[in-house]
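Worked problem 6 (solution included).
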Amino acid sequence: MPDLPNMHDAEPIPDAARGEIERLLHSGDLFRYTASEGSPVALLEEEFAAWMGKRFALAVSSCSAALFLSLKALGLPRDARVMIPAFTFAAVPSSIVHADCVPVLCEVDDSYRIDMADFEARLDDVDAVMISHMRGHTSDMDAILRLAAARDIPVIEDAAHSLGTRWNGQLVGTLGAVGCFSFQSYKMLNGGEGGILLTDDADLIARAVILSGAYEHNWKKHPVLHEAFAKWQNKLPLYNLRMSNLSAAVIRPQLDELDRRVANGRRNHDHVADLLRRSPWIDVPSALPKEERAPDSLQFSLTGMDDASVDAFVEVARTMGVTIQVFGRSTDNARAFWNWEFLGPAPDLPKTRQMLSRACDCRLPARLTLEDCDAVADVILSAIDHVMQQPVQATA
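Solution. The predicted structure is:
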């Protein structure tokens, strides 16, 4: 068995960040609004918006903060109903609760994407839609946007896992009214923590900027028409969800690495997926025709295996050096909707529950080589072979 790569550490921060970090450490200039213009946070917003092809960006403390601010900036009333896929991270319904709204869960199918029949059936009873492109799997955005537009329902994209993914040639996170991204350590851009929201709506970004903590006249340091800000002066609460200059200084140089990371992540994912598809016990859902993915992890579903075999597979893979979580069989997993007890009794969503009971998640960073990927695939297939006693040739 080949030596396994380190699959858990993030990529090193580029050396280009060091000079700006050193300057900030010497000056203590960590607050984004200290400088009159050109702070690292403001530059990150400008550069990220340009890379994504959007007019406005607002960098904040986390993607959860971006989702929360999006809901508040849309002006949704208390107890507004916001539909989300039942396969997402607990922070997504939490952001809705934080915004005094009510999460409405819809089914997700075996491809990890929204079940469009269930989505449409629930749509008339909601006020907004928050689409989580969970683990980078894009649902049918053409249908989602069409159905929502027909009902004048705003669509927020939770693109935390989809930076660089394209739908019909357009970057995911630029399709809805607002797109939200994460800079947490395991994402394509690593700030440790942090997030950013994107929109072309000047009035919406003005509200989001003030809500994020641009008190007094600090909003004048944002490149938005001041008329959009002035009418909201003193009329909105301040939630203080700002990003610091230090985080922005860490993130900005990584933008130059983004195209490479996207290309290598796709290469690694597709290479391992093709190897795993040789097993009769593994299903790796394919990309949709309009979807060009940018993955940094691998998901696959176990088929024809009982619960005991699934658990045994996870344990054997672990002893061989590859950590795999099965979303629906990992204790207290924050991606299993029945563990979101803060929402009350879990809804009856049998399709999603069944999918999560067999859906596996494995880190597969973009920095791995193809030889590293072969080693990971060898472990997964060998663990399946050990448990199911059916040999599968891993590599040529």
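Discussion: The longest strand covers residues 297-302.
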